[in-house]
Design brief:
By secondary structure, this protein is mostly helical. It contains eight helices and no strands. The N terminus is likely disordered.
């Protein structure tokens, strides 16, 4: 029984993992991802252990969802950058083969370099799509993320910073409260509209 369940699970994973059909995911992206996941292969146990890396548990309006997904796209861009750098760094085995000067070692090094170039090409295809989507649809979210990072750099222990921050608090507090009131009024107006339509015969 357990073996049958695992077989179904593996089949479902293989079908869903490599193919996403939608308006924005192209055939090139699907094919490229399929080849990348063949290289970055992990076991079923590893894939399900600890859950998803990116958990989209946010419930809210479109702006909140776009803020989260904009941050996810930026993180993917950084992640793929790290993966590309790792491919540029020779493994100890490759380095030893190169330094050893043997013909077999040189052949292995060349083959490894060629395989890495192939994976780098695939990663760059995915990176191209991510950057295009961020630039076209998530430009404002990128600016917001930069502002949030700037907030994290504030020197909390600096006396001058503390004084300036206190002097700026009240207008910011008023703006935050006003924005919250506007959002609450919009929600109430939408609720009344829905209620009015539902009561109509």
């Amino acid at each position: 029984m357990v073996a049958a369940v695992m077989a179904v699970l593996c089949l479902t994973l293989c079908l869903s993992e490599h193919q996403v059909h939608g308006t924005h995911v192209t055939k090139e992206m699907n094919d490229t991802m399929h080849k990348l996941l063949q290289h970055y292969h992990i076991t079923i146990k590893q894939r399900f252990n600890g859950g998803s890396i990116f958990k989209n548990t946010l419930q809210g309006n479109t702006e909140i969802q776009m803020m989260f997904l904009g941050a996810v796209l930026e993180t993917y861009e950084e992640l793929i950058g790290v993966m590309l750098k790792q491919l540029d760094t020779p493994s100890p085995q490759t380095a030893n083969s190169t330094n050893g000067g043997t013909k077999d070692g040189a052949a292995d090094s060349t083959a490894g370099s060629g395989a890495n170039d192939h994976i780098k090409d695939k990663l760059n295809i995915i990176l191209k799509y991510i950057r295009e989507l961020r630039q076209l649809r998530y430009h404002e979210q990128g600016e917001l993320m930069q502002k949030l990072r700037d907030l994290q750099k504030i020197k909390m222990n600096d006396f001058v910073v503390q004084s300036k921050a206190l002097s700026e608090l009240l207008p910011l507090y008023e703006a935050a409260g006003t924005l919250s009131d506007r959002r609450r009024r919009r929600r109430q107006a939408r609720a009344k509209t829905r209620s009015r339509f539902s009561l109509q015969p």
